[in-house]
Amino acid sequence: MELYSIIRRPLVTEKSTISREKANQYLFEVDSAATKIEIQNAVEKLFKVKVASVRTLNVLGKKKRVGRHMGKRKDWKKAMVKLAPGSRIDVFGEV
Questions:
Q1: Which residue from 25, 38, 74, 94 could staple onto 19, CB 3.0 to 4.6 Å apart?
Q2: In 3D, which of 45, 46, 44, 38 has the Cα closest to residue 82?
């Protein structure tokens, strides 16, 4: 797989900011078919850092009502990437 198709986007939320500051752990939305090893290799090559561990989970899409019809958002996969001590990803580019 291509690196940019594995890592779709970083998840920047209040919870992910706290885990980034305290545990050096970053959250990404990744391709549903990507494995932990593929995610680790993609993060290491894209951001030039050393990855300590990768944890993944499948997030179910929410059910939403559109008028009188029920719809559903897409299911997606989240990856929690813990970096080795001393490694850091600059998410916003020194803002």
A1: 25
A2: 44
Q: Which CATH number fits domain 3-83: 3.30.70.330, 3.10.50.40, 3.40.50.300, 3.80.30.20?
A: 3.30.70.330
Spatial CA neighbour of 28 closest among 76, 94, 92? 76
Residue of 39, 33, 37 whose CA lies nearest to 10: 39
Of 88, 78, 17, residue with least CA distance to 52: 88
pTM (predicted TM-score): 0.88
Q: Distance between alpha carbon 81 and the CA centroid of its chain, in Å? A: 7
Dist. CA 80–CA 19, nearest whole Å: 10
What is the pLDDT, as a whole number, of residue 3? Answer: 87
Q: Which DSSP category does 19 fall into?
A: H
- For the chain, domain boundaries: 3-83
